[in-house]
Amino acid sequence: MNDKKLSTEPYKGVRDFYPENMAEQRYMFEVWRLTAEQFGFQEYNASVLEPAELYRHKTSTEIVNEQTYSFTDRGDRAVTLRPEMTPTVARMIAGRRRELSFPVRWYSIPNLFRYERMQRGRLREHWQLNCDIFGIDDVSADVEIILLANEIFKNFGAENGLHYEIHVSSRRLLEALYDSLTLDKEIRLGVTRLADRKNKMEVDEFKRQMQSIAGETTSVILSFLNADNINVVPETIKDTPAYTEILTLINTMTDLDCQLVFDPTIIRGFDYYTGIVFEVMDLDPE
């Protein structure tokens, strides 16, 4: 007989939500839902269980191999607790593509799980707001999504430029840079993966590793990654559609009183990011 007492602590990396915590979460979710629906988005959801194969095809190898909660069920099927929502919504859209009327605007507040190193404010379970637009293949969709994100923060009482900044870049522009340098696929992948970690590394170490990957093209790549303004990127990519696209985005958002900060280090690690990418940066040092 095992007399060891059961712990009252939750499983490592997740949280218990007592009534006072639920009240805070409910408030946040209500602001998210209200704002998304004001922009014309409809809510959807799905199970936290997905076939592991879905992530092998649609997610970065780091997440699949090192960060997923995966197991084999009693039917000998490989199953994963979803670490992100994008592959799920892509699967759902594909499943109903003949029935849906595009453009489609859907949102969800999924519960997600990643077995990764825990740090302040980042556990192994979290919720996030996903807003997706399907059926619009131009910069207007990016304008709409960024305006939605900005409105959410405003509805929480925050001010753009005072409490947060919206940093924006373009994977398409990065690819245009690679094309101008005639980099092969393996080098492109290595540069992209390293660039995604630039702000987490010491400057000299980052340069050393970039030199080992990119060789004689390192100086041009660094000039792009260090650009603090869209107008100072290398001249070789200023005549590309990707440059025109992000310049249009920045100018349009300025006209709409939503300031953006051009930041080429915003890469995002997933392979399905191919166009405009953005992140909201908290300006509070705490």
From TrEMBL:
Q: Which Gene3D superfamilies match?
A: Bira Bifunctional Protein, Domain 2
Q: Domain of life here? A: Bacteria
Q: What keyword terms does UniProt attach to this protein?
A: Ligase
Q: Name one GO biological process term.
A: histidyl-tRNA aminoacylation
One Gene Ontology cellular component: cytoplasm
Matches recorded under CDD domains: HisRS-like_core (cd00773)
Cross-referenced Pfam families: tRNA-synt_His
Gene Ontology molecular function terms on file = histidine-tRNA ligase activity
- List, for all copies, the residue spans of the domain called Aminoacyl-transfer RNA synthetases class-II family profile: 31-286
User: What's this protein's name?
Assistant: Histidine--tRNA ligase
UniProt source species: Candidatus Kaiserbacteria bacterium CG_4_8_14_3_um_filter_38_9
